[in-house]
Design goal:
Elements: H1 14-26, E1 36-42, E2 45-56, H2 60-79, E3 82-95, H3 99-105
Parallel strand pairs: 2-3
Antiparallel strand pairs: 1-2
Helix pairs in contact: 1-2
């Protein structure tokens, strides 16, 4: 039996880390589709690259700033890993509505 103070180790695979980052980035209403996330994790530090489709009109600079802050905070909270570098590439602008409007038009 282990002592109450012994906690063990938690390991988050690179793939799982990227999936979590993808989910966090995709939660923003200004991100049009599921983002593509790639990157590296080295111990407790990570660097990621996001390819995003962004809803137009949206301030790309403002969105990038907000996403970086949210991703850094949430990834640290969810995984214990510090994201030191986040590169964001806007690969497409999508005119139109927010996701909430899309769901109202196409009920499941």
């Amino acid at each position: 039996m282990s002592t109450p103070g012994g906690r063990g180790t938690t390991i988050v695979s690179d793939r799982a880390f990227m999936k979590i980052a993808e989910q966090v980035a995709g939660e923003d209403e200004h991100v049009a589709d599921r983002p593509h996330v790639s990157g590296t994790v080295a111990g407790s530090v990570a660097a990621i690259h996001l390819d995003l489709a962004v809803r137009y009109p949206t301030s790309v600079a403002g969105l990038a700033h907000e996403l970086r802050e949210r991703i850094r905070s949430r990834m640290r909270e969810l995984t214990g890993i510090t994201v030191e570098n986040i590169d964001i590439e806007v690969v497409r602008l999508v005119p139109g509505q927010r996701r909430d409007d899309d769901h109202r038009r196409h009920p499941v």
